[in-house]
Amino acid sequence: MRNLIRIHCKRYLFRWESFAVTMLNLLLTVFCTLAALLMYEPENLNNEPFYNVMHTVSLISIAFTMTAVIFTEINTLATGAIRNPLIAGYSKGQVFLSKFIAVGIFSIVQGALFLLPPVLANIWIDVPVLYTISMLLVYVVVSCIAMSVCLLTDRPTVFVVICIGCLVGLLLGGKALTSISDIPQFNSVRIEQETLSKDENTWYVPSPQRDILEQCIIVNPMQPINEYGGWYFKHQDTSGFAIDSWKNALIQSTSEIEKEYNQFMLKQSEDALSHHTNRFKILPIYQIVFLVIFASVSVTIFRKRNLK
Amino acid sequence: MDYVLKTNALCKSYRKFHALNGVTMNVPKGSIYGFVGRNGAGKTTLIRLICGLQEPSSGEFTLYGTKHTDSKISKARRRMGAVVETPAYYGDMNAAENLKMQYAMLGLPTYDGINDLLKLVRLDDTGKKKAKDFSLGMKQRLGIALALCGNPDFLILDEPINGLDPQGIVEIRELILRLNRERNITVLISSHILDELARLATHYGFIDKGKIVQEISASELEAKCRKYLHVKVTSTAVFANIMDKLGAEYSILSDTEADLYGEYKISELSSALAAEDCELLSLTEHEESLENYFINLVGSDGGDVK
Question: Where are the beta strands (DSSP E) in chain B?
Fold first, then answer.
């Protein structure tokens, strides 16, 4: 099996398509570093344009990596080279898993080329490790799905298109669900006649539906991209600023109701921020679980597949 | 007799279509086993099962005495090389690189022997030319070289001469004979080009509609192949009447030509025809070809055996 992994890695890492994608990813990372230098301002509380750029560029990088995987697989299938390891005595399970691992390694290399320089430049503030892991796993998920689709179907081109559609669907669906979960519980909170007056948001999703919504969000293997392009990164500076402000206000509170108000607002700001930080902690675990389940199902199907 | 491959009531179905319908065959060690059948008879399906590309629906086969369900079948397959339908290679690599990949896949410690293999299949002068740019014959020879990596003692070749030019056919034929004679490699070769197969095979297996119709050695086949007379007459209708009266076996080819099986005295035949105003124009003696033998065996409905 080690021999197989080695030759599949060689196939993925030493092809001109792979070389081209590596160069493009390096180009993107140079672009991102320049964007960080020119657009990102740590003092500015609104770095949304910078995060939007980074979000789009990361999607492009993932698409490049997936394209290299699809090209390599379709090329291998076209010349029937997939048969060689089977005739040489390897089982279908070994062939599939070795490819899965090789694709995983290839996509991690490509992801690292794109992600590591900005991460090392310490742009991603307080969750660089978790962010990097979950984003690398997005590369792995997307590439492994593309590779599996090529191996498991007779019409890889058609199914690759469907697969891309599904991935885009996951991305957009996840984005919509994330937006829903970000709707705050209260539109406004005021002190009125020595009591707190709260206007509940009609669009706010209450428990237990909220738990289901949260589950739907975190099982989505593409979610780190949404998180990256979503509320957390765009608002973490403003939220951090808000938390500091409410903390100061709490210290300087002069009345009980003011203290209660400041405490409530501080909690709301902290909840909003920790909500996304907690997701980052759990997303990589869910992505790994997804990969394990996906690999198991794919191996089972591949073993039953009639190869030509 | 030692057998490299034995199949027992092997079946393979694709939904409602039965590609193999209880195939039982035996490939003797050291033989060149000609696997004969029309397109769609089930030759490639059987080869795919043996190579592990597909699983049988029922029945079993043993490779070097190892059952296909046994976990050691992978080890047995290591002693085998195969070219299934089309040669499997990496198009963006040259011949030597392709062989290096195969060596690495087999876990062979060194690349020694690659040059010998390239010489054996006469691809040693291809240099950096990529496999995708090879001619059909070169690709076929590269496929055989890949199958020969790791010194297998059983080689499966599925239609190895399809699409080759006459020189390519001769080259492949000579290569197969050399491998069999010099390296004592058992070869299972499927084809529907029977003339070519007849020059190679020491044993035959005839398959039709997913069933083995007959297994026979080349010497037995030779004994069974009947001689016949190819006759040209003025009217085969009259010829047929006379032959029916004589109880002879014949086949009409056209209005003036027919084949006549069995032994006959030419003078008697000539006078019998002359008595019915049918002139015997010419007469040549032939031996029944493998092609005819096969057609007689499986019938001639819609076949495309050449």
Answer: 3-14, 17-28, 32-37, 58-63, 66-67, 80-83, 154-158, 186-191, 203-208, 211-217, 227-233, 249-252, 257-261, 280-287
Identify whether the C-beta of residue B206 lies closer than 8 Å to the C-beta of residue B41.
no
- Nearest residue of B to residue A84, measured between CA atoms: B88
| Cα separation, A226 vs A237, whole angstroms | 18
- Going A253 to A259 to A263 to A264, the CA torsion angle's sign is negative
Residue B108 in tokens: 């062979």
DSSP helix/strand/coil, B261: strand
Cα(B166)–Cα(B177) distance, integer angstroms:
17
**Per-residue pLDDT tens digits for B165-199:** 788 788 888 888 888 888 888 999 988 777 788 88
Dist CA B129 CA B144 (whole Å): 18
Nearest-by-Cβ selection for A7 from B86, B89, B101: B101
Give the span between the Cα atoms of A161 and A139, in whole angstroms. 18
Two tokens, residue B240: 């047929």
Is it the case that residue A206 has pLDDT exceeding 70?
A: yes
Interstrand relation of B58-63 and B66-67 (parallel, antiparallel or unpaired) = antiparallel
- How many CB atoms lie under 10 A from the CB of residue A37? 10
Q: Pick from B80, B88, B106: which is nearest to A83 by CB?
A: B88
Q: No. of H helices and E strands in chain A?
A: 11, 2
Whole-prediction pTM: 0.76
Between chains, do A87 and B75 touch, taking CB under 8 Å as contact? no
- The tokens describing A237, both together, are 């500076």
CB distance A89–B75 less than 8 Å? Answer: yes
ipTM metric: 0.72
* Residues of chain B neighbouring A308 (CB-CB closer than 8 A): 48, 53, 85
Contact call for A80 and B81, based on CB within 8 A: no
**What is the chain A residue with the closest CA to B54?**
A306
Cα nearest neighbour of A5 on chain B: B105
